Amino acid sequence: MFDSVHEECGVFGIFDHDGRRNVAKDIYLALYALQHRGQQSAGIAVNYNGAINHHKDLGLANEVFNEMILNGLGGYFGCGHVRYSKEKSVTRDEAQPFLAKHIKGQIAIAHNGNIINAQSLRDELSERGAMFQSASDAEVLAHIIARERLKTESTEASILNVMKDIKGAFSLVIVTMNKLIAVRDENGFRPLCIGKLGNCTIVSSESCAIDALGGTFVRDIEPGEVVVVDINGMKSYKDNCVKKGSLCIFEHVYFARPDSIIDNVSVHFARKAAGAELAMTKPVEADIVVGVPDSGIDAALGYAEKSGIPYGIGLTKNRYIGRTFIQTSAAERLQAVKIKLNALKSVVNGKRIILIDDSIVRGTTTASLVSLMRDAGATEVHVRISSPPFLYPCYFGTDIDSQDKLIAHRLTEEEIRISIDADTLAYLPLEGVKKMMKDSKTGYCVGCFTRKYPVKIEE
Amino acid sequence: MFDSVHEECGVFGIFDHDGRRNVAKDIYLALYALQHRGQQSAGIAVNYNGAINHHKDLGLANEVFNEMILNGLGGYFGCGHVRYSKEKSVTRDEAQPFLAKHIKGQIAIAHNGNIINAQSLRDELSERGAMFQSASDAEVLAHIIARERLKTESTEASILNVMKDIKGAFSLVIVTMNKLIAVRDENGFRPLCIGKLGNCTIVSSESCAIDALGGTFVRDIEPGEVVVVDINGMKSYKDNCVKKGSLCIFEHVYFARPDSIIDNVSVHFARKAAGAELAMTKPVEADIVVGVPDSGIDAALGYAEKSGIPYGIGLTKNRYIGRTFIQTSAAERLQAVKIKLNALKSVVNGKRIILIDDSIVRGTTTASLVSLMRDAGATEVHVRISSPPFLYPCYFGTDIDSQDKLIAHRLTEEEIRISIDADTLAYLPLEGVKKMMKDSKTGYCVGCFTRKYPVKIEE
Amino acid sequence: MFDSVHEECGVFGIFDHDGRRNVAKDIYLALYALQHRGQQSAGIAVNYNGAINHHKDLGLANEVFNEMILNGLGGYFGCGHVRYSKEKSVTRDEAQPFLAKHIKGQIAIAHNGNIINAQSLRDELSERGAMFQSASDAEVLAHIIARERLKTESTEASILNVMKDIKGAFSLVIVTMNKLIAVRDENGFRPLCIGKLGNCTIVSSESCAIDALGGTFVRDIEPGEVVVVDINGMKSYKDNCVKKGSLCIFEHVYFARPDSIIDNVSVHFARKAAGAELAMTKPVEADIVVGVPDSGIDAALGYAEKSGIPYGIGLTKNRYIGRTFIQTSAAERLQAVKIKLNALKSVVNGKRIILIDDSIVRGTTTASLVSLMRDAGATEVHVRISSPPFLYPCYFGTDIDSQDKLIAHRLTEEEIRISIDADTLAYLPLEGVKKMMKDSKTGYCVGCFTRKYPVKIEE
Amino acid sequence: MFDSVHEECGVFGIFDHDGRRNVAKDIYLALYALQHRGQQSAGIAVNYNGAINHHKDLGLANEVFNEMILNGLGGYFGCGHVRYSKEKSVTRDEAQPFLAKHIKGQIAIAHNGNIINAQSLRDELSERGAMFQSASDAEVLAHIIARERLKTESTEASILNVMKDIKGAFSLVIVTMNKLIAVRDENGFRPLCIGKLGNCTIVSSESCAIDALGGTFVRDIEPGEVVVVDINGMKSYKDNCVKKGSLCIFEHVYFARPDSIIDNVSVHFARKAAGAELAMTKPVEADIVVGVPDSGIDAALGYAEKSGIPYGIGLTKNRYIGRTFIQTSAAERLQAVKIKLNALKSVVNGKRIILIDDSIVRGTTTASLVSLMRDAGATEVHVRISSPPFLYPCYFGTDIDSQDKLIAHRLTEEEIRISIDADTLAYLPLEGVKKMMKDSKTGYCVGCFTRKYPVKIEE
Question: Could you give the CA distance from residue B23 to residue B10 in angstroms, rounded to a whole number?
């Protein structure tokens, strides 16, 4: 509905080494905690005595699942998936985990990311007789792994063999006949971490899902690492850990939950640091610092603390906004913003406002927000963006695959300022990203700001 | 709910040679007319400018489809499917048509029948790297055809090549990028016929669906025949027409609608003839002949006409019985019969009844019906079955795959008579089947009566 | 969908004198058996320890109820209702039983019929301060009974007092704090009978629902009778039994199930008798007698037996026709007939057909049926209608409240014959109705044929 | 799910003086904005050419309504309602607006509040023959107003006459044949205000709904005031404005949205003031002030600003928590808190925390939150509650109708501190409430803290 960039998926897996716990409910609760990573479909696959059962459908986790369905999904290890799709027509066929039978058994795959050579992989497989039922990368990955299994002794051996052929972003959670396998691509574009809950091993897109279950965070999975969990414990394969890694910077800017810690960096602190850096490098005189809920709140607090200008709650967000609201015209789009967000006149009226948001994609929402501030009596509105200008498309699992949608690509900073009607506009300098990410154990991808992608893109 | 034998599917296809008609609604109406062949799932696949779209789900056709969904399925040729599954757990994944992409394009397959070497075909395909997402034979067939397409110039060439490898029953309707293809196995176990509607060519499991659309029946597809329909017209390939054929006798006994004509035999007349033959060979003195609705009605009329004993409406059937009624205990099973069928006391009371039903499978329903007659005041109840004793399992697309369920396998005729509490019990003699089928252009399979199957069964 | 006359409702009640049985499931099964009397909404009200709970909604009984809902409706006595509404906009508010609290407790009312002075009763109640939430007569009846309760000692006393003020048709089943009460208006327009099931007393629109539960029919409730059932047994009040009664003739012609017995007349035999009478009074030379399923079947058998012309199954009905099929144009209406009914060409082809239907309302369906016969090869089609011409509106609970819809009102018999394209057309003579109803213990209303209504109609 | 006090309803109305706008969609958007006041049912009633149509059901506004339903609700004035019910069994019958027909036309009533003499009003009405279909106060109010209409010339005259007889809390929005009427009880327990949108007049429980539509706030409706809106404009009747008023203090403490302004007090500022007052009167040394989202956030900011201790985001709330999550045991309750709220370890770890929440009802959630903080590494947890101890039941429209549920009634402050495992615990002093409400134009009810209710309560 709003002009923001979208994450494509969240993945999760759990294995009870005691072989007793029915994990479907745990996975369901974890999908709840990862729901911000995708709201279009949800699915769970569970291994029950060597047979994988699954349930998936369009909708939020609590729309797709209920007590009866979860009770019907017995099994002590399994995986789950929430999905945002960039495709216009969203169908049930694309929901994950993707489940298939092959010569050596069954496999369920949950994928977060984007395979940039997916089409050539599909073509190659098709030439060897493969048949596809969906447009999802997960199906391609399943084929590649299943084919390789003809030659190998184990699924993990297959994965290690084929990883080098798969270009792009993939954080995978895989359920086989007797194992739970987690895979992170060699660049580590998408997050993936390990946790513990009693005698269960967890793998999750974000640590917040581990917390939601009452578990404890153990460590991030390294770029290129393959983690295999079975009844005996956990093994790690680092044969393909060949790069430092390049986590998508937008995980910290916008996608991830602030309570998650990714590659050693607290998302909340990264955002606060970006706000502080904005205060240092792009200062402005004002009365109050207002963050755009939810993703601009942390940066606003960082800006306020660093600048000494008071932090204010100038915008409130309706907690009940669901996915069914329909809009078409520009007038309705403005109203849509008003239904989602409302200015607190008593806070804003007569004040010079510093308005902090995480990014500007098309610019329409930012313009609406400035207008909300002015209508509420703001005398000045200074927009500060806690990331650098979004200039180039992303090929690694977000929905900004064309620069035509990007206002920063079409207009200069001053033109954008005018178009959103702000008194001043400033972005986080590229160097500021380093401050955000100073504790990072991996590198990070800023291709959307610089056009320098860690993987070669063929036009 | 009731102890009868079940058909597994109905298939349908239509191609508008003018390329103008949106055929989804026609297919929907046809599925309505074929609904008696399967009530568990329904699906439609339509070719829209070379891309195949589909919609399918669990439920009756009018539960799965609505105006909006049908309007969204544009395209001038397509196929449809209704399904009964013998599996206990019925899932959406098994619904057909089965849709897949392969090296040479897309394919949608609707299948009626049962492939008896499906497992070995699956194994073979798996060894060559194939991956399966369902337990359905349609997926196996899609794989075989798609693989063969690597070597051939056309889908029909592929089909003609692989037909000899596929053992068992298959009446297929296939939609490709530009063709509608109908295939009947060399034994012709399941029916398949051709019709016309304006400038459209139709293929259908039964002629009643052609009638429902206002079309005209053209001819049956021969056992082994492959019919290819495209924008230019229709072609027939009879390379694999090597046998006389052996239509499943239960199509005429019970499955098909009485208004259908299969392999030159009117289903209604076949049933009437069976009734007449029963009257000749298994006569009994009585006051009235009562047919069990719906499938025993025609035979009862035949019996009455031949014997001179009046035809009576002694049982009425509730038109609103749906699939949601739940029963568990034997007491509830008796009540379930009462809810479905009620005796007309005014007809039955004080009379000697000849009760005609099509078959006895487990015997529980027949016993309930005799009890209904006696409770309504019948002084004698003479049960006549319009087919020979069901003694052996069927491997060609019904759900009687084990003889343990068959009362005729466990008990003698006299024991059955006692267990259903009838005064007399008689079956149609095997020779009577010849009379039923005297106009048949193909042969017929009576393996369930004789254990002589037209295809070798490996135990 | 089709141009037939419609019944408006079915009612049912049950009281377990042992106070132990949970009757909601019995009521549900009974509504199944009465479903032909109304398909738009279904409802159940049950008395649980002196509090009446209910569930009702739009839809068939098996769509409105499920195991969980039925389990939630505990109580050893209650009532149920299925409804057909003549109103165009069908809303949930009109579903019955209608439930209300008044000064002396709670009341649930299920009503079959039509109150012809409902508007003046409403006006009078409104002037005394009453408030209405629906357009249903049941709410008016509840108000009248509840008001009268201010002056009386019991609900039955109230009912007996007010019955004379209520003009028109009403068969009521009422649940109070401790009683089940059944009321039939003094003309007995709509059926209502009593049955037994173990130690339970049943009241039902038709005896077929008693049979469906495995109960036994006891007797009809007399026109004007009030039957009160409580823990101690059953009492009858005949203070208002002042007339012989005048059952709606269409109950026997079309509405009721053939296995029901109403006012001592078997519906099946009444229809057979009408057919026999047609054979005697309106004979024609032909090869075969075909009944239009389902309501013309019995009359066709009667015609065949009396005339000596063979009874044939020339039309088959699709068992799966549901309420969701949408039609708009005349072409679609013809197709709708084809989807519902199909001619058996093998029976009809080359034959002179006598086609028996129960009535002609608008004439469009009859025309379609004649056309079906001719398309199937009938050389002559002689239409025989097993009731007299439907000439005048009905005010007693059917949906023909205006004569404009009636083809017999607009056209002569010969004009109708031409419009439906029949070779000959004949109706049952009015005197023939006497033969149908010769065993009736009450009189019957034939106002729709004669304009002589048993109750004065103010225009 | 959580042990908090609940508001019972939100009401809204709009009238287009131009008579052109279809207001159903506006009402829908307003219900979205008022959704926090009730999540169990939603309803809209619209006057279309003098007839009132409505739609209502269980669920959130976006579950109950869709584009098609809203398009079907034409009309240029109407009202809406969202409901929280304290009853255990929530049924569709209780959904509002309540719609009825009476002698002078139709009426739709939407009610927020609680009538404390409802039972005696019901009894009195019943004695005069009234019948009730629900347990809702709205039905009682409709009866009283409709009865009075027998004697008066207008609905407003009726309302003014009967207001003195109705004891308790009621903010009403009423739609009649040609008017929109808003009524606030003489104590003004529940909020109600007036807004403008183009040439439309709005009445709303909270100003946030006016903002959501892009309208402008005009003024609060005074305690006892009756506002009548029709095609000609707006009239105010203050005959019953006899008291200063006593707004429920929990509207400011917890119920209302922070962006609403009620009786001249900004909810956000009232909460901030409460926090500041806590800092002044109940100081404690600590490192960081953390608010419990969402209602504790504003008070936490107030505490932080006044104390100089930094404001921190120590808890994050899952935005996707819906109503379907099911819990039963204490262990699941703790997990439920974890799914809803997560501690930010990076913020909390090693810190002395001041945790600010709005109130303690049963105490279980507060205990879980302290435990979350300690698990995240907090060295000390000092709980500060931004309202005085909740000691006595409320009779004016919340769900705390018994003091047994209230931990503060059973335990001393020290016992509560121990039971929630806090290092210190302090509440806002009663005098602090004065500071919160210093700008209030009305008084406020603090009966839940003091047992001094503005209306006499008969036990």
Answer: 17
Q: Which chains touch A (3 or more CB pairs under 8 A)?
A: B, D
> In sequence order, what are the beta bridge partners of A81?
A11, A43
Q: Which of A101, A129, A150 sits opposite B132 (nearest CB)?
A: A101
Residues of chain A falling short of pLDDT 50: 1-2, 324
d(CA A119, CA A110): 19
Task: Kindly tell me if the per-residue pLDDT of B79 is higher than 80.
Answer: yes
- Kindly compute the dihedral angle of the four CA atoms of residues D431, D437, D438, D442, in this order, to the nearest 10 degrees: -120
β-strands C352-357, C216-220: how paired? unpaired
Burial of D412 (0-12, 13-18, 19+ CB in 10 A): exposed
User: What is the Cα–Cα distance from B57 to B60, expressed in whole angstroms?
Assistant: 9
pLDDT of residue C404: 81
Q: Decide: pTM greater than 0.95.
A: no
What is the average pLDDT value for chain B, to the nearest integer?
92
Contact criterion met (CB < 8 Å) for A62 and D322: yes
Sign of CA dihedral C259, C265, C267, C272: positive
Preferred mutation among B131, B139, B155 to probe A, highest tally of A CBs within 10 A: B131
At C2 the pLDDT is 40
Shortest distance, CA B389 to any CA of chain C (angstroms) = 27
Q: Three-state SS for D197?
A: strand
Cβ(A434)–Cβ(A281) under 8 Å?
Answer: no
Could you identify the residue written with the tokens 């009462």? B338
- Please determine, for residue C330, whether its predicted confidence score (pLDDT) is greater than 80: no
pLDDT for residue A3:
56
Residue of C264, C249, C241, C112 lying closest to C187 (CA atoms): C241
Per-residue pLDDT tens over the stretch C118-162: 999 999 999 999 999 988 899 999 999 999 999 999 999 999 999
Is B29 part of the contact surface with chain C (CB cutoff 8 Å)? Answer: yes
CB atoms within 10 A of CB C67: 12
Tokens 């006598």 locate to C354
Contact C131 D102 (CB under 8 A): yes
Q: How far is C139 from chain D (nearest CA, A)?
A: 10
Is residue B145 less than 8 Å (CB to CB) from chain A? no
- Please give the average per-residue pLDDT across B213-232, as a whole number: 97
Cβ–Cβ < 8 Å for D38, D397: no
**Chain D contact for C101, CB < 8 A?**
yes
- Contact between C454 and C187 (Cβ < 8 Å): yes
Is C9 among the residues known to form the active site? yes
Return the closest-CA partner of residue C357 out of C373, C346, C344.
Answer: C373
Bigger pLDDT: B442 or D31? D31
Q: Do C313 and B268 touch (CB under 8 A)?
A: yes
pLDDT tens for each residue of C46-99: 999 999 999 999 989 988 998 889 999 999 999 999 998 665 556 788 899 999
Q: Mean of the pLDDT values across residues C389-417?
A: 90
Lowest mean pLDDT: which of A219-223, C242-246, D48-52, D398-402? D398-402
CA nearest D372: which of A319, A212, A258? A212
> Does A322 contact D at CB distance below 8 Å?
yes
Instruction: Extract the tokens encoding C379.
Output: 């050389």
- Measured between beta carbons, the chain C residues lying within 8 angstroms of B60 are 320, 322
**Candidates B100, B101, B126; nearest CB to A103:** B126
Set of chain C residues whose Cβ sits within 8 Å of the Cβ of B346: 261, 266, 268-269
Count of A-D CB contacts under 8 Å: 140
Residue corresponding to tokens 């327990």: D189
Judged by a CB distance cut-off of 8 A, whether residue A89 touches chain B is: no
Domains and CATH numbers, chain A: 9-243 (3.60.20.10), 266-450 (3.40.50.2020)
- Touching check for C343 and chain B: CB below 8 Å? yes
Quick check: B377 and B343 in contact, CB under 8 A? no
